[in-house]
Amino acid sequence: MPGTRKLGRPTDHRKAMLRAMVTFLFEKGKIETTVTRAKEVRSVAEKMITTAKKGDLHSKRQIFSFITKEDVAKKLFDEIAPKYTERNGGFTRIIKIGPRRGDAAEMAIIELV
Predict the structure, then answer these.
(1) What is the pLDDT of residue 3?
(2) How far is residue 19 from each of residues 16, 40, 43, 85, measured CA to CA in Å?
(3) Residue 107 forms beta bridges with which residues?
(4) Does residue 15 have a pLDDT over 80?
């Protein structure tokens, strides 16, 4: 199954949800969600960190166009990206925490390493 997961949502809703989740992940450091969503968020978040590591004007514009809060985008450039200068990928960790009580969906915590 190549490409991205559709997560049972139309394209615009899915993109908005991923933007919000990635922004929240960078803001708080970790979030709790379903395993499939966590895997999609990991993909987007790792690309964002890799882009932010470059630190040039083009990458700043790309990040500011995606992250929904300006202070979180600044934090990504000032605090998060410099922390991973020696690391080539693997900036996030997904920990499975068992099924959700209501619908038994497999839950996970995604956090920055």
Answers:
(1) 77
(2) 5, 11, 12, 23
(3) 34, 98
(4) yes
Secondary structure of residue 106 in the 3-state scheme: strand
Domains of the chain and CATH, by start: 11-112 (3.90.1030.10)
42/25 Cα distance (integer angstroms): 10
Q: CA torsion, points 86, 61, 80, 112, in degrees to nearest 10?
A: -100
Q: What is each CA distance from 76 to 1, 80, 83, 108, 109, in whole angstroms?
A: 31, 5, 10, 23, 20
Give start and end residues of each alpha helix (H) in 29-68: 35-54, 57-66
> What does the alpha-carbon distance between residue 38 and residue 92 come to, in Å, rounded to a whole number?
10
Q: Is 85 exposed, middle or buried (0-12, 13-18, 19+ CB in 10 A)?
A: exposed
pLDDT digits (tens, 9 = 90+) for 24-82: 999 999 999 999 999 999 999 999 999 999 999 999 999 999 999 999 999 999 999 99
Q: Contact 105/99 with Cβ under 8 angstroms?
A: yes
